[in-house]
Amino acid sequence: MIDINPESLPEGDDKVRAVRAMFDSIAPRYDLVNRVMTFRMDVGWRRKTVRQLQLQPGALVLDLACGTGDFCRELRTNDFTAIGADLSFGMLAAGTTGAPLIQSDILSLPMPDHSVDAITCGFALRNLVELTPFFAELFRVVRPGGRIALLEVAEPTNPLLRWGHGMYFGKVVPLIGGLLSDATAYQYLPKSVAYLPEPAVLLNMIQSAGFTNATRTVFSGGIAQLLVGTRDDASW
Fold this sequence. Notes:
With about 240 residues, the protein is α/β, with parallel strands linked by helices.
């Protein structure tokens, strides 16, 4: 059992410890639960995300919060060179990708400035302690003219879809998670959406970090969002 209370969301260092423990705990069945609870839509979302990178074959792409390597596998399928980084050693140990994986706090990456062509990140923004330093770290590590593609959950704007999604995400997902993995973790994960800023605020944060052309696209009726941007050439 992980030490995280879904009724009171942790902050600061408590959040770091709780999130790491949670993902260590659910790592063995994390991919299975994702496939079941999204009806495999997460596979298609990652595929679309990688397409949005619009890079040449062989480009070096760093995947943050890589988990067991879903994005790394998709990147390698598209002839990119992938490196994964994750805070949770349990997730890395459960990895099923041939890409090199490193354990790291993604707010302070062991990577030189301007050292990668692109960065991907899936479903991790709401698990970070602070977003502004994260976007600054992306700006530091990606080369001028390089790309970022951040995939995250979202809430539909249509009232009926929003209600249905809220019921599914808040009631059914914890049930699935409890049956297949850790009930406490999958009670927390739906509630963790509360950490995310409103879409316009989130997009503005990314643009202010130096990805001024950043755009937001929604998938599957608005239950997932993709934030894509290019690092400004004139900003280094």
